[in-house]
Structures are given as C-alpha cells and as structure tokens.
C-alpha cells in the first residue's frame, strides 16, 4: 500500500471512497435518482398551486422593511436592481403564464428567447410577493442557462445575450434563498447549528424543485471561471444547505464540489468553498459532520503530496482552515484524529522495523510532514490554554498531544544525519507551535542542539557557489550542499532561531527550573563554539551560537534572581504554578532577543517575496 492510499484512511474502513456516506444513503437516493433529468415542460407544475391569491397584499409592506430584515439582499438590490425597489403593484401583468415558454403545448420548433423584460417581471413578482410561481419559472430558465451548450440536455429557453445570461444566473443565486427563507424558514440554534425546514405540505412540494436547482448550481460551479461569480455562487449556495441535507446524494455532490475548489482554486474561492463546507458541518445531523471531517482531511492529504514556494501558501491556508473545522465538535473530532494519528504511528513503526530505503520513504515525505503539522495545528487550536479557560473545561482532544509528540520525535530520530536536518526542522516547528499554544512541555532540545553542534565541530566545510537553501520548501538536502558553508550557515541560523523560540516559550522559560533545564544545552553549545574557534571558516556560525548562549545565560540569571526570595518548597505545586504564571517571558533577555529576531526574519521574508514577485513580473514581460 502506498503512502497516499494509507493516509487516505482505507485501513480504517472496509470500503472505499463511496463508503464515506452514511449507511442510510441508499434509501435516501432512491427517491431522487432521476431528479436531474426531469423534463422542464412538465416538472414542478404543482408548485404553482401553492400560491395564495391574498399573499401578495400581505407582503407589500415587507419591502419597506427589507433593509432591516435582510440588509445583504437589500444592498444587492440597490447595486444591481434598483428599479425593482420602485414598483407599481397595479402594473403587474395578470397573465403570467404567457411568459412560461416551457409549458406551451403548441410550441413550434423555434424556442422562446429569454429577454430582460421577462426576467424583470419574474424579479418583481419574487420581490413583491415572494411568488413561488415566478421562482419556478426563474429556476427553469436557470437550468436552461446552465445547460445551454449541451446537446444532450433539453432546455426550455434560448438565451442569446451574455447580459441576460449573467442576470438569470445572479438573480437565481440571490433570490432563491430569500424566497425559501420566507416560505420554509430554517431554525438556527444558539450554538450556531441549524435544523432543516419543518416537513410541511408546502416544503414537500418545493423539495424536488430545490434539489433539481441545487444540482444545476453544482454543475455551474464546475464551469465558472470568473472568481467573483464563483465566490457569490458558493456564498449563496451555502444558504441552501439546510434545504438539501435530507438528500445524501445532493450532500455528497456538494461536498465534493466544494472540496475540489478548496484544494485547487484561488484564495478567495478557497475561503468561500471552505465556509460552505463549514456550513454543512454545522448541521445538527452528526453524520454530516463526520462526512465533512473525513473528506476534508483526505482532500488535504492528496493536495500536499508535493510542496514548492508557490504551493506552500495554499497548503498552509488549507491546513489552517481545516483545523478550524476539526474544532467544531471536539468529541466527534477525537475519533477521526485518533485514527489518523495512529496511521502516522503505524507508518513510523514499520519504517523503524524494516530500516530500508523504501520503508524510510513512508515517513520521509511531504504528506507525512504536513499531516504532523496539521494535527499540531488542530490540537493547538483545540487545547489552547486561554480557550480552555474561557470554556471552563479541558478539550476532549488533549489526550492526543502525547501520542502526536511521540510520533514526531520518533520520526526525527529515524535518520539523524545532516541531510535530514530540514525534515527535523519542520517537525520541530510543528511541535514548537503546539507547546506555545497548549503550555505543554515538549523536549525539543535533543532534536535541535545537534543541528548547531555538527556544523561547528565538522572539519570539512567547503565553499560553494550555490544559492541559499530554502528550508521552508526543502525536505532533504541535495548531495551537493553537504559540507558546504552555505548549508552550514543556513542550518545554524534556522536551528538557533527555533531553539531560541523554544527556550523562550512559556513551558520552558516561565518554569522555576529554567536555569537547571538549560545547563546541558549551554554546555554542549559552549563546547561547540570553542571547537569552531580553533577551526577556520566557521566564524559566522560560531557568532550566532555564541550570541544565543549569552542570552540564555542572562535569562537563567534573571530567573535565579526572581526565585531567590521564594519561601515555598518545590513540592508546593500550587505556589510553584502561581509563581510561574507571574513570569513575563517577553521582558527577559532571551524574550527580547527572540522578539528582535522575529522582526528581522519577517523583514527578510517580505524582501524575498518581493524579489520573487519581481522575477515573475520580468518573466511575464
């Protein structure tokens, strides 16, 4: 089994991707298997019977209050359909059936052409009366727009204007949620979750129409290339999610479409697609959350198979957004997180047992690194000390910190050679983020100190005209970089910064035992600096490490000064915790040093991005 298949989670279940659906999916699909193929000429005619002749009068006064009730929709009307806000109820055409080209039995070979006047009449009926008859006509026209260039799809209208096409698409997307919310409102609970509409006769009649429209929107999303229209389509479709959750087929298509966009589109579209997935996961039906969690993780794993300077920002966006999804329900997320972290442990165990080049590749790859980092983000977000204090209880995901740390440290020890230092740095950064957010002590020094000692004590450092290595997008160092000054300087700079960040984190620096914790670290680094001073060509690396050692020693003295006046013994844990909570790490010598280093690295990062952007501009010219 390949790493891709293994991380795909197939070992956790007997079935393949189709079994991502709940067990009752088949029974739900039987009633809707032909919903996309309904004939426009005959479908949804029963919707017209739902119209109440007196309903229009009851809703005329609502238009004056539209800005209050639905400011977003009102703003859209002001910007795009301002003339609809100034309507005359007496001017409505009573014979609306003449507009419904799809119901004309005497229709000739010439297909009726959809015009702006016809579309505007439907808009007015929907806006003034929340007319279901007008909505039905609009959605039939929308289907014609979506399938207008497909020979095998029967359509009711001909659209020969790009303006009308855009208008019918945007009108359908914007107006449909408004009409549904009026006739079949959904319930939003206090915790943000939603319940579907009540099963009234009106909703049962509308359901197939909405499911058909929903599938047409999904088809449209695969065709659109305009970013602004894509974002609007995703935002408006998310409002329809409560109306389609009863159809597992529709949910599966929706989730797949959104996740495809989330993993491949531009940033604005990715964010809108993720918000749509989060909307689906906010259902009171826990099976939908399970489906969203599993498929989101699988999509992330497939998307991060390779990493470059151009793909890394998108992968980071995916990891950060997916980690938010996993913190909606900690108890539910625990089941998934436990299984997937166990997968990582199994891969590591197999590599440690076999100890072959092929088995090492099961762990030394970008998917493994990004999975470790993703679960560190999830646990850091869920088990954040401040968040837990506000919630009043520990997260259900906290017990998973220990196994994730063990897996990460085990992976770092698997191949402890110089070519693997970038891999070790990736793991160290993930664990550093975890320890900073959760206030959990993680022993990172044994992983970081060798990266500083080896370049300083090595006697074979040669010069080379190579470009500086980008440690963010490097997993294993190319052979030509080994024993070169450019690589030694890069490793020392990166490892020294990560070690400084680690020692300045609250679980380490705020500890009353900080001076004792740093004794072996300082001793090893001082010995390496002395060895470097005897050699040649290692002055820059030695200076970086020497500065770090000096700041650590100053901070150790700072802590010793603060704890001189304590009157409690180490066994008084309550007193110890109170003393540690009063320590302001940012005021210590090491804390100030780290703050300066962060600013310098951020400035350098922006310069590199600017330079990379300049290179792209030159290439475009």
UniProtKB/TrEMBL annotation:
Compositionally biased spans, kind Acidic residues: 14-56, 91-109
Signal sequence range: none
Protein name, as recorded: Nucleolar complex protein 2
Predominant cellular place of this UniProt entry's protein: nucleus
Gene Ontology process terms (BP): ribosomal large subunit biogenesis
GO cellular component: Noc1p-Noc2p complex; Noc2p-Noc3p complex; nucleolus; nucleoplasm
Family: Belongs to the NOC2 family.
Pfam families per record: Noc2
Domain of life (superkingdom): Eukaryota
UniProt lineage: Eukaryota, Fungi, Dikarya, Basidiomycota, Agaricomycotina
Organism: Phlebiopsis gigantea (strain 11061_1 CR5-6) (White-rot fungus)
Residues covered by region (Disordered): 1-65, 88-110
Location of the protein in the cell: Nucleus
Keyword set, alphabetical order: Nucleus
InterPro entries xrefs: Noc2
């Amino acid at each position: 089994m390949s790493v891709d298949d293994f991380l795909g989670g197939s070992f956790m279940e007997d079935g393949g991707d189709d079994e991502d659906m709940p067990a009752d999916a088949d029974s739900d699909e039987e009633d809707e298997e032909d919903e996309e193929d309904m004939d426009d000429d005959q479908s949804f005619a029963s919707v017209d019977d739902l119209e109440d002749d007196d309903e229009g009068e009851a809703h005329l006064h609502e238009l004056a209050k539209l800005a209050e009730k639905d400011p977003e929709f009102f703003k859209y009307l002001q910007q795009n359909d301002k003339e609809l806000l100034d309507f005359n109820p007496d001017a409505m055409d009573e014979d609306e059936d003449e507009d419904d080209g799809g119901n004309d039995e005497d229709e000739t070979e010439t297909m009726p052409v959809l015009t702006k006047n016809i579309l505007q009449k439907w808009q007015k009926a929907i806006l003034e009366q929340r007319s279901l008859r007008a909505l039905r006509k609009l959605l039939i026209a929308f289907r014609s727009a979506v399938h207008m260039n497909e020979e095998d799809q029967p359509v009711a209208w001909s659209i020969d204007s790009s303006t009308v096409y855009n208008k019918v698409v945007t009108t359908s997307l914007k107006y449909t949620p408004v009409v549904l919310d009026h006739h079949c409102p959904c319930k939003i609970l206090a915790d943000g979750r939603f319940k579907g509409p009540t099963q009234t006769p009106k909703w049962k009649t509308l359901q197939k129409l909405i499911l058909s429209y929903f599938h047409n929107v999904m088809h449209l999303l695969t065709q659109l290339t305009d970013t602004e229209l894509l974002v609007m389509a995703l935002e408006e479709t998310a409002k329809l999610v409560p109306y389609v959750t009863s159809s597992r087929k529709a949910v599966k298509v929706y989730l797949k479409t959104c996740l495809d966009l989330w993993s491949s589109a531009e940033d604005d579209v990715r964010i809108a697609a993720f918000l749509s997935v989060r909307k689906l996961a906010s259902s009171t039906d826990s099976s939908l959350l399970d489906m969203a969690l599993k498929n989101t993780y699988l999509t992330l794993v497939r998307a991060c198979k390779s990493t470059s300077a151009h793909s890394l920002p998108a992968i980071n966006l995916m990891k950060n957004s997916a980690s938010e999804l996993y913190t909606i329900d900690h108890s539910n997320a625990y089941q998934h997180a436990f299984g997937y972290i166990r997968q990582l442990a199994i891969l590591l165990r197999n590599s440690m047992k076999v100890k072959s080049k092929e088995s090492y590749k099961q762990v030394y790859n970008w998917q493994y690194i990004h999975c470790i980092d993703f679960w560190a983000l999830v646990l850091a977000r869920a088990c954040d000390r401040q968040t837990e204090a506000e919630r009043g209880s520990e997260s259900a995901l906290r017990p998973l910190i220990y196994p994730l740390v063990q897996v990460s440290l085990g992976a770092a020890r698997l191949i402890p050679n110089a070519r693997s230092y970038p891999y070790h740095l990736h793991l160290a950064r993930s664990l550093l983020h975890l320890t900073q957010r959760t206030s959990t002590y993680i022993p990172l020094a044994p992983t970081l100190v060798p990266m500083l000692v080896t370049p300083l004590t090595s006697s074979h450092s040669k010069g080379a005209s190579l470009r500086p290595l980008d440690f963010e997008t490097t997993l294993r160092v190319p052979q030509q970089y080994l024993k070169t000054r450019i690589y030694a300087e890069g490793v020392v700079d990166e490892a020294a910064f990560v070690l400084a960040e680690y020692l300045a984190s609250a679980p380490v620096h705020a500890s009353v035992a900080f001076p004792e914790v740093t004794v072996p670290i300082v001793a090893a680094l001082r010995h390496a600096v002395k060895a470097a001073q005897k050699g040649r060509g290692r002055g820059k690396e030695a200076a970086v490490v020497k500065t770090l050692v000096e700041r650590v020693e100053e901070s150790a003295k700072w802590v010793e000064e603060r704890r001189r006046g304590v009157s409690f013994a180490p066994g008084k844990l309550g007193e110890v915790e109170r003393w540690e909570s009063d320590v302001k790490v940012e005021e210590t010598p090491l804390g100030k040093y780290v703050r300066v280093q962060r600013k310098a690295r951020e400035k350098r990062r922006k310069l590199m991005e600017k330079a990379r952007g300049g290179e792209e501009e030159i290439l475009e010219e």
